[in-house]
Amino acid sequence: MTEWDVKKLRILRTLRDRGTVTATAEALRMTPSAVSQQLTNLARQLGVDLLEAQGRRVRLTDAAHLVLRHAEAVFAQLERAEAELTGYLRGEAGEVRVGAFSTAVPALVVPAVRLLRAEDRPGPDVRVREAEAAQAYELLTAGEVDLALSLAAHAPTARDPRFSLFPLLADPLDVALPADHPLAGAPALRLADLAADRWIFGGSGPWSEITTAACEAAGFVPEQAHSAAGWTAILALVEAGMGVALVPRMAARERREGVVMRVLEADRPRRHVVAAVRHGASSGPAVARVLAALTDVARSFS
């Protein structure tokens, strides 16, 4: 019978995801030569070629993709087994490491932890790690978090066998205007009414993409006057009359006296927040309780 080495299969999967031996070695804290040696040994064990040269790089063969397609089912089953074993040993009081983007920590994770602490039974020990939304799936794949909160724009497809996704909420995007803006009190404000304004958003990343997409859907390309990523900086710039900005309602709790928040009822821009776990891990009692608490908190935003 062919020998399937789970550790080596994980290395092969990481190479598929990261693209190069060097990036794989960095992700797994190995040397490139050790990665190459492990994959050579795996190919010998399975009796098929797994890699082929492509210039200075290597690419996975069709046989490697076939092996990984079946290995994903093995990984998911191991996640279920580990979740059940942890549940057997620690019940619902196990540790759950949660990775979340900045606005999700105070808006979703902290209230969820408070819900769990208010219950009469022992709850999971939640450990929080703030991370960029786009980084969530790397952390999950590397086993550095057990549950991640991210944006649907960065989520893999539902067919990705590595993860289970749980939609949490559609977070409305409101527009932040200086208090003395001519349209601060205008009825039925639309994004298109602000096409000539100067806009404030990040130079790259999810918020740049979300702002640009929302404005383009309203029929214009926003003129970026200032680049900022943190909501404190963005709202300070708005308050100073230096531009306008789209702000997710989850982040709008950080109010400023000189800023007017307006709901865009006609446009209804949204960003979609999802929770993700490694496929098979949601059967663990502790992870399931944290997911349930996050869902309850997200429901309160509706």
Structure description:
The chain has 302 residues and is α/β, with parallel strands linked by helices. It is built from 9 helices and 11 strands. The chain has helices at 6-18, 21-28, 32-46, 62-90, 104-118, 136-141, 206-217, 231-239, 285-299, and strands at residues 51-54, 57-60, 95-100, 125-130, 147-151, 163-178, 198-200, 223-226, 245-248, 259-262, 270-278. This is LysR family transcriptional regulator. Residues 4-61 form the HTH lysR-type domain. It comes from Streptomyces anulatus (Streptomyces chrysomallus).
In short:
The protein is an alpha/beta fold and 302 residues long. It has helices at 6-18, 21-28, 32-46, 62-90, 104-118, 136-141, 206-217, 231-239, 285-299; strands at residues 51-54, 57-60, 95-100, 125-130, 147-151, 163-178, 198-200, 223-226, 245-248, 259-262, 270-278. Strands 3, 4, 5, 6, 9, 10 and 11 form a seven-stranded mixed sheet that branches.
What's the helix-strand series? HHHEEHEHEHEEEHEHEEEH
Going by helix content, strand content and strand pairing, the class is alpha/beta
Helix coverage percent: 40-55%
Low-confidence stretches: none
Report the end-to-end length measured between terminal Cα atoms: 54 Å
- The overall pLDDT, averaged over residues, is 87
Measured on Cα atoms, how large is the radius of gyration?
Answer: 23 Å
Number of strands: 11
| Largest sheet, strands/sense/barrel | 7 strands, mixed
Number of continuous helical runs: 9
**Anisotropy-based shape:** globular
In terms of DSSP E residues, the strand content is 15-25%
InterPro entries: LysR_HTH_N, LysR_subst-bd, WH-like_DNA-bd_sf, WH_DNA-bd_sf
Protein name: LysR family transcriptional regulator
Domain HTH lysR-type: 4-61
Organism: Streptomyces anulatus (Streptomyces chrysomallus)
